[in-house]
Amino acid sequence: MVAGFCTEELTLNVSVHRIWKAAACEDHILLPQIMPQYFSSAELIGDGEAGSTKIFHFAPEAKPLTFVKNHVEVLDHGSHTLKYKTLDGGHLGHTLKSHTIEFKYEALSADTCAVKIKVEYDTIDDKGLSDEEVKKIKEGTAWMSKAVEGYLIANPASYA
Q: Which parts of the chain span the membrane according to its record (predicted)?
């Protein structure tokens, strides 16, 4: 097993309030709507706050992935920090033994914010992830954040 992490930082052209509500608090509702080519559906077990579980079901195009079950470790509305720990599915059992992802949103202005993303993982075997695998992780998290940003820009009344 090899522990590793990667980080990504993006500037988003929406307010921290809107992106927080859409991407952190209601991602289980929004992502299947705006990314049906990747997410077919999602379920929330709990009230959405820390301690809840969100299960995202992947579309057939996302094979070999079928679902990912994430536990909400942190949902801090004051610091705009969301941290998930994957309990089952996703890449667990394929290449990873454990996987957590943290999103921290920070206001830059009234209509822009930064998102700092940190992914931590332990691999199953005694080698780390390849540069290509790390690149895919970073691109995937950026792609989802940019998809939410695009939706919010196109729908200025949503999550206002």
A: none
The pTM for the full model equals 0.93
Residue 125's pLDDT band, with cuts at 50, 70 and 90, is: confident
- For a pLDDT cut of 90, what percent of the chain falls above it? 84
Predicted pLDDT at 147? 97
Query: Beta-carbon neighbour count of residue 154 at 10 Å?
Result: 9
How many angstroms separate the CA atoms of 72 and 99, rounded?
13
Where are the domains positioned within the chain?
3-154
Q: Which of 147, 143, 97, 92 is nearest to 117 (CA)?
A: 143
Q: Identify the CATH homologous superfamily for domain 3-154.
A: START domain (3.30.530.20)
The Cα–Cα gap between 69 and 50 comes to 14
Per residue, the 3-state secondary structure of the chain, as one string, reads CCEEEEEEEEEECCCHHHHHHHHHHCHHHHHHHHCCCCEEEEEEECCCCCCCEEEEEECHHHCCCCEEEEEEEEEECCCCEEEEEEEEECCECCCEEEEEEEEEEEEEECCEEEEEEEEEEEECCCCCCCHHHHHHHHHHHHHHHHHHHHHHHHCCCCCC
